[in-house]
Design brief:
The protein is built from 17 helices and nine strands. The chain is α/β, with parallel strands linked by helices. It folds into two domains: about 270 residues, Alpha-Beta Barrel (TIM Barrel), CATH 3.20.20; about 100 residues, no CATH class.
């Protein structure tokens, strides 16, 4: 077993990355509404990829999108685009709930409705892909695959945000209903805040919740992780939480993770998930923020963060850093100014390069924690901080709202709990 590297499939343009670069990920996490929208192409892709050994995927159920706010509705109040198609497929009772109320918050729904929505989500994850493939074959053809060939690695039950202790009971009901419906293993996602798990009693309740069920793996999602704002003590809480889950025998996997999640491998984290170009962290949306159109950013490995293109060129030149040696950058960039030249045709030319580079870096991070001792990784973070903090502070292209202190917070948090670190990852290779 190794540290699982999971690439999020959030954007139709990421298809190329998934198809052409399977060497840079272990599994794909597909947004349920992208699958619903692209219901010919994505099942086809999955069935082709299923022929490749070791291809695995999950479907992000996304029902938490409907919990609060109106980001999924247009100005007239209708459910928009991809969300509409997904809701149509799940059907009732979710459809009726969203017609009658503004939201579908598990806390406000009856047990019967909770059970039925949970059932429809399980059914979607287990059967939708195969059903679509079957519907698309010709009348006189047979599918050469079985449903199992194209099913996800595990079912992710409805992800309910745990804000209060009462929400744990709701999560318990959802996992219980999902367990009754599912034929595949469950991989529940515990969605909460760093504040919640900072309370020892609440943290214990979450771990007991996992222990009640026959689950060997889980996802972890935090609303409030933000490398510029999260404090060292919140990072420490995360370390202890991951370690406690690991000790309880369940393998935790981040639902959205930046490089800090890779450091958590030393405390028992078993995998992390990330997007190709945006979203190092997750934030629940309450208002529609538009689709796509954001400028490309370069993932600077030494910073473990994205920078805008002009900031990248400036900071890297000031630091005298050589261009990246990954196979993508090596092919395209002789010096940092080449980034600006490629920027002329950003969507078609630059973004695909930026994505490949990013995914290659994140893949390397998984290997880094598998192959190196914790002290050595922390030392390299420290060295990068020293080399780049000057250029970063003085560059007029870096937003003054940003700073590099997160590297120090990560390092200090990890050092303060180093007694919990599982020194040899091999010990985690988990008989
Ligand atoms: Zn690169």
């Amino acid at each position: 077993m190794k540290f699982e590297t999971t690439l999020r499939y959030k954007n139709l343009n990421d298809r190329n990355l998934i198809e052409s670069d399977p060497k840079y990920y272990d599994s794909v996490l597909i947004q349920a509404h992208l699958l619903a929208y692209s219901r010919k192409a994505v099942p086809q892709l999955l069935s082709e990829m299923a022929n490749d050994q070791g291809f695995t995927y999950y479907i992000d159920p996304m029902i938490s999108d409907f919990r609060i706010g109106n980001n999924f509705r247009d100005d007239e109040g209708n459910i928009r685009g991809w969300h509409r198609i997904y809701v149509d497929i799940l059907g009732d009772p979710l459809e009726t709930v969203l017609e009658r109320r503004s939201n579908a918050n598990a806390r406000e729904l009856s047990d019967d409705i909770l059970r039925e929505i949970t059932r429809s989500i399980v059914d979607y994850q287990e059967n939708f892909v195969y059903d679509r493939l079957e519907a698309d074959v010709g009348k006189y053809e047979d599918l050469t695959i079985t449903p199992r060939d194209v099913q996800p690695k595990a079912v992710i039950p409805w992800v309910h945000r745990i804000e209060k202790v009462e929400d744990i009971e709701i999560a318990r009901k959802i996992i219980n209903y999902a367990e009754q419906e599912s034929t595949l293993p469950l991989k529940p996602c515990l969605y909460t805040t760093t504040r919640f798990i900072g309370d020892a009693t609440k943290k214990r309740l979450l771990i007991e919740l996992l222990e009640e069920f026959d689950v060997s793996e889980c996802f972890l999602l935090f609303e409030d992780l933000n490398k510029y704002e999260t404090t060292q003590s919140e990072y420490t809480n995360l370390i202890e939480y991951v370690y406690d889950i690991h000790k309880s025998g369940v393998k935790p996997h981040f639902y959205y993770g930046d490089f800090f999640s890779n450091l958590l491998a030393y405390f028992g984290l078993r995998g992390t998930s990330f997007s190709s170009l945006f979203d190092e962290e997750f934030k629940e949306k309450t208002e529609y923020s538009g689709g796509g159109g954001l400028p490309g950013r370069y993932y600077v490995d030494q910073l473990k963060d994205f920078l805008k293109i002009d900031a990248t060129v400036d900071v890297m030149n000031r630091a005298g850093a050589p261009t990246c040696s990954c196979d993508v950058c090596e092919r395209h960039f002789d010096d940092w100014y080449d980034l600006v030249d490629y920027d002329q045709d950003e969507d078609q030319v630059l973004k695909p390069i930026l994505k490949k580079h990013r995914v290659a870096m994140r893949w390397n991070h998984s290997r880094l924690v598998e192959e190196h001792r914790l002290e050595d990784v922390l030392q390299s973070i420290d060295d990068d901080f020293s080399s780049f903090v000057g250029p970063y502070r003085t560059s007029p292209h870096v937003s003054p709202r940003k700073n590099m202190q997160y590297l120090q917070k990560w390092k200090k948090a990890v050092e303060s709990r180093s007694e919990l670190a599982v020194e040899e990852l091999d010990q985690l290779q988990y008989a």
